Amino acid sequence: MKHEFWFVVGSQSLYGPAVLETVKSRAEEMARELSKALPYPLVYKVTAKSNQEIKEIVKEANFRDECAGIITWCHTFSPSKMWIDGLRNLQKPWCHFATQYNKEIPNEEIDMDFMNLNQAAHGDREHGFIGTRLRKPRKVIAGYWQNAEVQKRIGDWMKAAVGVAVSKEMKVMRFGDNMREVAVTEGDKVETQIKLGWQVNTWAVGDLVKEMNAVTEAEIDALMAEYEAAYEIATDNLAAIRYQAREEIALKKLMDREGCRAFSNTFQDLYGMEQLPGLAAQHLMAQGYGFGAEGDWKVSAMTAILKAMGEGGNGASGFMEDYTYHLVEGQEYSLGAHMLEVCPSLAADKPRIETHHLGIGMNEKDPARLVFEGKAGKGIVVSLIDMGGRLRLIVQDIEAVKPILPMPNLPVARVMWRAMPDLTTGVECWIAAGGAHHTVLSYDVSAEMMRDWARMMDIEFVHITKDTTPEKLEEELLVKDLIWKLK
Ligand SMILES: [Mn+2]
Q1: Domain shared by 128 and 239, yes or no
Q2: Which of 85, 81, 83 lies closest to 96, judged by CA?
Q3: Same domain, 95 and 221
Q4: CA 56 to ligand 1 centroid distance, Å
Q5: Does residue 146 sit in the same domain as residue 265?
């Protein structure tokens, strides 16, 4: 799907054709220039002057799949009663860009004609009022349209809006149910489909085994060549790697056939399989598929959504799990890893393929997996939980470091980070908010993008930052619990 955004510029007929012609040509120029700086094209659509024009463009925006959202701006004044019908019916993400064509007030040139043409300062206030009065979720970005930081913020909002489009089309393929007795990986799939659009359905492990048996040696040879190019083979057990290739090919075929871009499985249900998919799941994640272990379909879909939002970014997003802490004073860190399945897009260096014994689950033979250290840098961890009747998205700012210990006997990929505001306060806040042990860790999707995404999806958002205190958070959670019950 090629995504684009539509530029809808507000005005009114009062000004006469000459002014409207200027507005149109400037809006076209701005859309053209902005498209060069933004991650997705901004297409100028209309200078809206009437209720009918606005209704028509909104109808089209709702209907066209390629339209991932609209950006509105009022070059002149644009009376807001004529926006009511359109905005009430708008089903796509909306950004109100409060900007103006000119950067400076021209000292000599400014007169009443200039004032009538360049009225964004009051046009955008009228426009903002109706958005607020309608309680319509939208992003407001103010600033000069040629400013790089402003353009970056619009670009980030676009990525969040693409996350909305991807969410609405999300299909998750499940093999096996949730790990027995685990609570946080559960959730109301019907409510989630209503709210986020996700289609979460199950396929028999036997279907996967059947597909694996149909994979040819030639197909495996081709994927082995890909592995050899991308990773360092650090095991003599090539049969184990070939088995993972067989699993990956079968998983990919099944998902592509059904239009799924995420999957989950569980080590408690591997009938007919020799190895828990490790390398297979990791290499699929590297291609943009979402994954959640132990039946965690929520984290699986979120992984795919963050990967889509970060597309073109310089970092990465991947399925993660909080494993263990280093609690030495001054060196407090979380060690994140998983049994096998950590996405190599998080890797600082070329990952190694290793095979090791795995004692947990129905695993019969030593599974091949990628082992590496995660990158250093600022990032976030994200958890979506079901609060019973509603979803809560929790985002915590983190700072990843090069792991401070080599941990030579740890047979899995590892990422080490400090949660904000500090490790133990951060843990207190995370636990108070109900955040899961499974997360999506991202270096290139920001907390602001996740806030935008949550607003567009109309779900609760909790952000734990360097300034969060357990006391303030406790109050925030109490208030939000009440608000979301009233909603
Ligand atoms: Mn897990």
Answers
A1: no
A2: 83
A3: no
A4: 48
A5: no
Q: What digits encode the pLDDT tens for the residues 31-87?
A: 999 999 999 999 999 999 999 999 999 999 999 999 999 999 999 999 999 999 999
Query: Looking at the 3D structure of the chain, how many domains does it have?
Result: 2
State residue 314's pLDDT score: 61
**169 alpha carbon – ligand 1 mean position (Å):** 25
Q: What is the CATH number of the domain that holds 29?
A: 3.40.50.10940
What is the 347 CA–ligand 1 centroid distance (Å)?
A: 19
Same domain, 144 and 188: no
Q: How far is the CA of 409 from the centre of ligand 1 (A)?
A: 20
User: Ligand 1 center to residue 122 CA distance, Å?
Assistant: 52
Distance (angstroms) between ligand 1 centre and the Cα of 338 equals 6
179 alpha carbon – ligand 1 mean position (Å): 9
Work out the pLDDT band at 362, boundaries 50, 70, 90. Answer: confident
Say how many residues make up the chain.
Answer: 487
- Within this chain, do residues 162 and 175 fall inside the same structural domain, yes or no? no
Q: From ligand 1's centre to the CA of 197, what distance in Å? A: 24
* Å from CA of 298 to ligand 1 middle: 12
Burial class (CB in 10 A: 0-12, 13-18, 19+), 199: middle
Pair 139, 215 in one domain: no
Do residue 81 and residue 200 come from a single domain?
no
Domain that holds residue 412: 171-486
Q: How does pLDDT run across 364-378, given as a tens digit for each residue?
A: 899 999 999 999 999
Pairwise CA distance, residues 291 & 320, whole Å = 10
Residue 293 CA, ligand 1 centroid: distance in Å? 5
Long-range residue pairs from 455-458, CB within 8 A, at least 24 positions apart, any chain: 455/137, 455/139, 456/93, 456/137, 456/160, 456/161, 456/164, 457/164, 457/167, 457/195, 457/196, 458/137, 458/195
The CA 207 to ligand 1 mean position distance, Å, reads 24
